[in-house]
Amino acid sequence: MLGEGKKIERWKEMETFPHVLQAKFEEVFNNNHSNKGNWQKEVLKNNNPIVLELGCGRGEYSVGLAKHFPEKNFIGIDIKGARIWKGAKQALDQKLSNVFFIRTRIDFINSFFAENEVDELWITFPDPQPQETRERKRLTAPMFMERYKQLLKPNGIIHLKTDNEGFFRYTLEEIERNNYHLIEHTFDLYGEKIETLDPKTQEILSIKTYYENLFSAKGHKIHYLRFRF
């Protein structure tokens, strides 16, 4: 575990990274950030699709996907700056121009992105918030789903990978209850499903986060689904 001094050192170093945004609370609480609606024109400087990774942690998926799809932009979002630093540093060292990171709470996501500005979402191993009293904090709870609807383009895809079966079933129930379109799902991605997919999709889904490797090492099955509104 990193000490407080090391965390502060990494936050300061990230302030020098051109591809990292560490927004102040007052910039986005009940307020729109200046990048909202301007990502392609002003920040990314291209018209390529925008893909978000929510709760990106160390940025393994954002960086991995950026390598696979140079024709897309990937933006990782997390509140833990010391974790983001790892992916941001890797992207910088590898000179990846299509990956960006935002240090903020996911609660503020609509302060950063305008309606129909995002093409795709990845939710990779989020905190499952298993207590019933914390249901509203689950990243597939109704409150968050409504936020995703606002920023996603029509037919935009949402991907979820998790090792928590309770959270996975909860998400499936939310999809069914709201008549969202479930495209694909499996309770055992690497045991029964991945070999049936095309090679490119297999390669993408085989990108593993730090936490996924931990869970897999403990024998946890990895659950995966994708859907659209």
Task: Characterize the structure shown.
- The structure is a single chain.
- The chain is an alpha/beta fold and 229 residues long.
- The protein has a single domain, classed as 3-Layer(aba) Sandwich (Rossmann fold), CATH 3.40.50.150.
- It is 38% helix and 21% strand.
- The protein is built from ten helices and eight strands.
- The chain has helices at residues 4-14, 25-28, 39-44, 60-68, 81-93, 142-151, 165-177, 189-193, 199-205, 210-217, and strands spanning 20-22, 50-54, 73-78, 99-103, 118-124, 152-162, 181-186, 223-228.
- The chain has an eight-stranded mixed β-sheet, with helices on both faces.
- Helix 4 (60-68) links the parallel strand 2 (50-54) and strand 3.
- Helix 1 (4-14) crosses helix 5 (81-93).
- It is globular.
- The model has no long low-confidence stretch (mean pLDDT 90).
Quick synopsis:
By secondary structure, this protein is of the alpha/beta class.
Query: What's the gyration radius in Å?
Result: 17 Å
Instruction: Compute the average pLDDT.
Output: 90
CATH class: Alpha Beta
Q: Determine the fraction of residues in helical runs and give it as a percent range.
A: 25-40%
Q: CATH topology, which one?
A: Rossmann fold
| CATH architecture group name | 3-Layer(aba) Sandwich
- Binned strand content: 15-25%
Biggest sheet: strands, sense, closure? 8 strands, mixed
CATH superfamily: Vaccinia Virus protein VP39
Order of SSEs, N→C? HEHHEHEHEEHEHEHHHE
Distance between the termini: 39 Å
- The count of β-strands is 8
User: In the residues, how many domains can be counted?
Assistant: 1
Q: How would the global form be characterised? A: globular
User: What multimeric state do the chains show?
Assistant: single chain
Biggest sheet, spatial arrangement of strands: 1-4-3-2-5-6-8-7
Structural class: alpha/beta
- Number of helical stretches of at least 4 residues: 10
Low-confidence stretches: none
